[in-house]
């Protein structure tokens, strides 16, 4: 993995990084977000699971509609929804994925369902259906856990809670789907202007993508960054044959989250978010699944649920009781 240097300069304002040079089959993408168990965050509200509204607003800003996939849905319900939607978006959050009782390790139902979804995504794509999986933060961790069949080696301690940093791009970027058509000025801003935000304790070391065949055969790293202790981590990767996207940076936060003072809200940070939202919309738009009619979609839309104004630690969240 070679990290390359960008020579492009940039202008301060009026930027638009959006690239429209893509083929789309479907201008009505609908995406599933798996809800996060409330065992840590919002555990006092009595809600069983939640979805931070920022992820929903972020996807909506790209022209994507959202249906919730509650993590406790049955496998049949998940199969049904995955036959109607155009991809899945696995989000960040904080939850205990495993517990040890009497020396025996148990997987949280949320971990089981996420791993099931990852394997289903692989199966669909291998059967010729283009079905993207995007994982942000814990959603990226869940992807790595599932691909390695829950190997301890998948994630390593990193000091990147509430952390802003610069990125370094790898030599896979020019031929990548995610950044292959990106405006070099955007990569320059991400590389040098300290606009990307991370908030996690467990990341991925570059060696995972060279030494572990289960990972190296599936994902290629696109960007790395140092954590607070100077440890190098892979923060953006994409699937080689399968449309997986995994980011430890949060493209949705600059426009929609205000509690942490570390989040950069300047115009370039917002434009980077727009780039990701419209890129993902185009990826989801390559899938042609449909609910068939509006009434059928409407039954499952996240807009049936109430959104709560909280500010801390998230501006708004959908709570599922
Ligand atoms: C965005 O924020 C970064 C870091 O504070 C700064 O270096 C950059 O110039 C800002 N860009 C704009 C367009 O304000
Ligand atoms: C909620 O989670 C926090 C953080 O893990 C913990 O300190 C607290 O005891 C939990 N509260 C309940 C009611 O479970
Ligand atoms: C998770 O999956 C494991 C093995 O596939 C199974 O033994 C366990 O019962 C499942 N746990 C839950 C909560 O579904
Ligand atoms: C990035 O910005 C944060 C927040 O202002 C600051 O703490 C950090 O030192 C900056 N890092 C770099 C590499 O400029
Ligand atoms: C919408 O689709 C559902 C499920 O396929 C079907 O049962 C229903 O009759 C359709 N409604 C209309 C108005 O076409
Ligand atoms: C899942 O949890 C919700 C509450 O969040 C509940 O209404 C629903 O019945 C549960 N579904 C299953 C299959 O357990």
Automatic annotation (TrEMBL):
E.C. number: 3.4.19.9
Keywords: Hydrolase, Secreted, Signal
Annotated coiled-coil segments of the chain: none
Compartment(s) where it occurs, according to its Swiss-Prot or TrEMBL record: Secreted, Extracellular space
InterPro entries: Class_I_gatase-like, Pept_C26_g-glut_hydrolase, Peptidase_C26
GO molecular function, one term: gamma-glutamyl-peptidase activity
GO biological process: tetrahydrofolylpolyglutamate metabolic process
SUPFAM superfamilies: Class I glutamine amidotransferase-like (SSF52317)
Cellular component GO terms held in the UniProt record: extracellular region; vacuole
Top-level EC class: hydrolase
Signal sequence bounds: 1-16
Family: Belongs to the peptidase C26 family.
Protein name: folate gamma-glutamyl hydrolase
Protein species of origin: Blepharisma stoltei
